[in-house]
Known about the structure:
35% of the residues lie in helices and 8% in strands.
Amino acid sequence: MACGPVGCRAQAGGPGARPARLGAERGRHHRSPQQGRGAFRRRSGRRVRCLLGRGAGGRHGLSGEVFLQLRLPRRDRGQPAFRLRPGSLGQEGHHPAQARGQGPGRRHPQLHPQRRGARPRGRRPSLAPGRGDGRHQHGGGAQALQGRRVRKRARPGTGPLSLNEAAAPVLYSFRRCPYAMRARLALRAAGVTVALREVALRDKPAELLALSPKATVPVLRLADGRVLEQSLDIMRWALARHDPQGWLRADEDDEVAALIALNDGPFKQALDRYKYASRHPQRPAEAWRDEAVALLLAPLEARLAAHRCLLRDTPSLADMALLPFVRQFAGVDAAWFDGGPLPRLGDWLRRLTATPLFETVMTRFNPWRPGDPERLF
Ligand SMILES: N[C@@H](CCC(=O)N[C@@H](CS)C(=O)NCC(=O)O)C(=O)O
């Protein structure tokens, strides 16, 4: 068995701290006097960095993400961690619970998070970040981590994440974003529990930027380390796991894709201009509105003459992917929409937004900050 020593650190969100990219590194290891007792640095060989889970903040939790750093046998070097052969990460496997000291292999020395330096005497350094600048919080958490002991057992509600929480994908979302809404709709319909991190678009967390430099929401980080950066990918991923309401049908794929392309492309552009007409003074708001109607909404109205939903009588992926955008259009001038030329679309919108599913995905949350407990959604 070829596991090397283990490192545990707060994920700082800066360079070299990309939690979702599981990969091997090459480097040298040696001890350094500055690092204190039990400290560990790279000596040789390749290592894999495994995301274990998140600190829960407060007085016990780690501020950020916890990694194991493991030396791999030659045969498994270069493999993504989720494809490693059994035994490569230790005889008990590499379940996060072991590294938290909760699983059956909790005494396995090579799976224990490495302590970085002795804890200073006196008060235990707090890992709970302040409410200031995100980067500063990270720095504080990382420093504090160097001087803290990893506790073996946590009091309920204060310790590291439970097994289910640690396994939950992490969704960076913004309540009012129509792309994030469609992702939440699919995740919820599929019964996939995620750790939801509400994002303030003006103050995006470093963790999101490290995962997805394009910096849009939604972003879903899966438990195996993959990152889904497109709302449609998130929808399809969720529904491929479980689709109890039958949103996906293989024979509808082309039609669905065409409607979504129209929605996300020309319609969305006209919608943005209608919504923010003062920023596009080259035409009056009504002109952008009418363009949006002609491009997509009038064809949808025609479809609804044949079925209760866009492709059939029950909702499909197309209905749920377009719903948040049509809702946004209707909200720009509700009086016009209610009395205008789209009565069937208005009825469709009311039906689909009056569901418990839609109401649930519109729950309000405060923006997530590093160190906050995860909010399962
Ligand atoms: N193609 C992306 C588009 C996502 C997108 O544009 N989201 C907007 C919010 S509605 C965003 O994050 N914008 C970045 C910003 O405003 O800083 C998807 O389908 O997920």
